[in-house]
Design goal:
The protein is α/β, with parallel strands linked by helices. Helix 1 (10-28) links the parallel strand 1 and strand 2 (36-41). The chain contains 16 helices and 13 strands. Bound molecules: uridine-diphosphate-N-acetylglucosamine (UD1). It is an enzyme of class 5 (isomerase).
């Protein structure tokens, strides 16, 4: 068997690493009939701190090939990935292509494989925000309608797929592969003592991330979030690793100067996987528009305020850790005050978020 695994952007890397660890585990255990497994990096993310740092931290093998597509408009980026990946597929003719998550690389490779008649597996299938203004929602819909095998994280995802008419026989509830990376990395991440390095007391600071185009690309919404952070840093220290898109917009809109009067706000570069995990694990609460952080805080038992109007990960709300707070600064700060006065939620991960999802996926792929 030959399996080609695709990764392109930061949130993909922690979802492909565990598949390669599982292959290594099977090899060390002397399993026979192991597949040849290749890794293709599309190059959607290319900066060291958005890509290579994750390969180092997660011990992911060097990609067999990097398509080096870089940043561009959605159409041009998607097209470049398709052209590059078509060449790879025709050369390798794999039994399976595995795509993960919901970035442009995911949908572009899904479309390419399906048109070539190849078999496609999607890890993290079935998540839906029902908001088609999010590029990721389009990517999720396209990928899932094309996939031959759909690996889901929770029962709500299964229900979404069944409601869209996906054949039950293609769906496998396997749990959350990102939690495999988290569970394995956590002891090392904590040992890095990132909070202490920043002069912060564990359990007494907030971590913020913001990068959704809907939040940062227009001046009024970014300004509102920025002023909210100005208020937040009066309540507790705030660490904000700033995504390159967000940093560019903060500069464009002339907002950075305001932060000179905000001593509690630390703007830092995007961090690698382990440092960021350590920073989050020791925080008091998280404010984010990320998808993955809603799940990581769920596993860790940390309050998460999701700065969006909707989420494709409602299972984390049901678990009690995640709060969908929207974009109104007064509402967000009121929720912060409420959560700071309350005790921390208990970790309450959904079934099968247990660190062994890659094992279930590989067993299923190898079974045909
Ligand atoms: C992409 C994903 C998003 C994911 C996010 C995580 C899509 C549609 N979006 O959004 O789901 O949550 O990654 O980071 O696939 N840039 C760099 N270095 C890099 C990559 C990007 O400087 O390595 C800058 C470029 O100026 C680029 C901008 O960031 O134009 C945005 O990058 P892009 O890959 O287009 O989208 P993201 O916002 O990162």
């Amino acid at each position: 068997q030959k399996i080609v695994v695709v990764a392109g952007a930061r949130p993909n890397f922690m979802k492909v690493g565990p598949l390669f660890w599982e292959l290594a585990r099977l090899r060390a255990a002397g399993a026979d009939n192991l597949p040849e497994m290749m890794l293709i990096h599309t190059g959607q993310h290319y900066s060291d701190n958005m890509s290579e740092a994750f390969f180092r931290d997660l011990g992911i093998p060097e990609p067999d090939e990097n398509l080096e597509v870089g940043s561009d408009s959605h159409a041009r980026q998607t097209a470049a990935i398709m052209v590059g990946f078509e060449r790879v597929w025709l050369r390798e003719r794999p039994d399976w292509v595995v795509v993960v998550g919901d970035v442009n690389s995911t949908a572009a490779c899904a479309l390419t494989v399906s048109k070539l008649g190849g078999r496609l597996a999607h890890v993290e299938a079935g998540l839906r925000s029902r908001d088609r203004s999010m590029p990721e929602e389009i990517n999720r819909l396209v990928t899932d309608v094309l996939a031959d095998r759909l690996y889901t994280t929770d029962v709500l995802a299964d229900q979404n797929l069944l409601a869209e008419g996906v054949d039950q026989a293609k769906i496998r509830l396997v749990g959350n592969i990102m939690i495999d990376s988290l569970a394995r990395g956590l002891p090392k991440a904590r040992s890095l003592a990132v909070a202490a390095e920043l002069g912060l007391a564990p359990g007494a600071y907030a971590v913020v991330t913001l990068h959704r185009p809907s939040n940062v690309d227009a001046e009024p919404s970014l300004r509102a979030m920025w002023l909210m952070l100005g208020e937040l840093q009066r309540r507790l220290p705030v660490v904000f690793p700033v995504h390159p898109r967000t940093m560019a917009r903060l500069a464009d809109f002339g907002l950075l100067g305001l932060a000179k009067g905000w001593p509690g706000l630390r703007l830092v570069e995007p961090m690698g996987y382990l440092r960021f995990l350590g920073l989050v694990a020791d925080s008091r609460l998280v404010l984010t528009d990320s998808g993955g952080l809603q799940e990581e805080t769920c596993y860790l038992g940390l309050p998460c305020l999701t700065l969006r109007q909707n989420t494709e990960r409602p299972v984390t709300i049901a678990a009690g850790t995640n709060h969908l707070v929207g974009l109104e600064p007064a509402d967000i700060l009121a929720k912060v005050d409420q959560l700071l006065a309350a005790t921390k939620p208990a970790p309450n991960p959904p079934p099968l978020w247990d660190g062994h999802t890659a094992r279930r996926i590989m067993a299923d792929l190898l079974a045909g």
